[in-house]
Amino acid sequence: MPAPKMIFAVLLSLATSVASAAVPSNTEASNTKPSTSEQSINDTYIQLAAAVYEDSLIAARELQSSVGTLLKKPSEKSLAKARAAWRKARVPYQQSETFRFANPEIDEWEGKLNSWPLDEGLIDYVADDYFHEMGNLGAQLNIIANPVLKIGGQEIDARNITPELIESLHEFAGSESNVASGYHAIEFLLWGQDLNGTAAGAGERPYTDFAVGENCTHGHCQRRRDYLQAATTLLVKDLEDMSARWQKGGDLHAKYINLSPEQVMTNIVFSIGSLSLGELAGERMKVALEANSTEDEHDCFSDNTHYSHYYNTLGMQNLFMGQYQRINGDRVGGPSLAGIAKAKAPQAFERLRLAMNDSVAKTNALVQAAEFSQPPMKFDQMIAEGNSRGKALIVDAVNALVEQTAALEALAKEIDVDHSGALAF
Predict the structure, then answer these.
(1) How does DSSP assign 198-237, residue by residue?
(2) Of 20, 210, 289, 420, whose CB is crowded by the most CB atoms within 10 A?
(3) Per CATH, which fold does 8-414 belong to?
(4) Percent of the chain, pLDDT > 90?
(5) Distance CA 124, CA 120 (A)
(6) Are 394 and 289 contacting, i.e. CB atoms less than 8 angstroms apart?
(7) In a 10 Å sphere around its CB, with 0-12 CB exposed, 13-18 middle and 19+ buried, how is residue 1 labelled?
(8) b/e string for 11-48 if b means 16 or more Cβ within 10 A?
(9) Helix, strand, coil in percent for the chain, rounding step 5
(10) Each residue of 308-319: pLDDT tens digit?
(11) What is the pTM of this model?
């Protein structure tokens, strides 16, 4: 869901306090020695973007393979493996989002892959007490159950569920809630609705929803199989397209070869600032917390939200420091905004470096609570009304991102980089 492109002064009003916790001594970026070459910052930007989108594509293909195994032989084991592959696919993609906001080409494309929240009734069966967005014409279409979609006196032929059909129905009738494609549509198909509210538990779709013949549950299993296969195929195609755009000969590669280093630095500042506060701290965390709303949880079917928030934060640190660890363990990187900042404004650089370490640590605290505490406390439990411990964890993360954004703004002023958001393309 796109965040409003507001200036940082407005964004800072999202929170009222600033985190001041100590930076963990094992935070990797604390020992990084950034490079200082302005002329090569363009190359680093291209290298990081190309690597993270290629990793996203590799992981999506692994998800596609796991989905193929699930459909070939539905079982609890094959469903669990497909779910694990989906979670793994989120790791590089969430780190890629830091490239989104300064690049309209990516921001417009992103909606096909990561839009949320979604009206599940557009795609498949839902609980009897399902509450859909008021006025959404597509909220109860149930594509899987209906080979012919009837709406507003019109009929849409949906007999063959193909990537092209799914793409045509994405944001149907102009509603952002009609999410037909991307990670969250696939997530819903793999997990089903999470009917636990703010209590423990994720979606519990049975593997028999993908069975053929008499073992099929909830009906229309072949069409559900077709939808999952087509949605995964479309995800891979979309990532193939974006990955190619960052390779030599691609339009985004050419764009960043020809931008001035100053414009690249401006884009880095704008991207990090927009994701840091307007999107992550605001749309994805503070809104859900204040409304106690599981509908505003990012990975709401799988309860994977804590990891998505952490990898968003890590992605911002990657871009600033000019470094990225690929999913195969290789490290890529080069001259960075951090290196330029350290040379030109060492105090402002140090403030931002520590703030980013703290943001990574505070979002990692969400992961620790969700995965390793006893009992585990997922993000949808953290936002429950009256959960003081969960609220404190989220507020700490929000405040760390607020300080990160303030430190970024201060650094931009020190090194004379435009931070107003008035970018020209």
Answers:
(1) TSS------GGGG--GGG--SS-HHHHHHHHHHHHHHHHH
(2) 210
(3) A middle domain of Talin 1 (1.20.1420)
(4) 80
(5) 6
(6) yes
(7) middle
(8) bbebbeeebeeebeeebebeebebbbebebbbbbbbbb
(9) 60, 5, 35
(10) 999 999 999 999
(11) 0.90
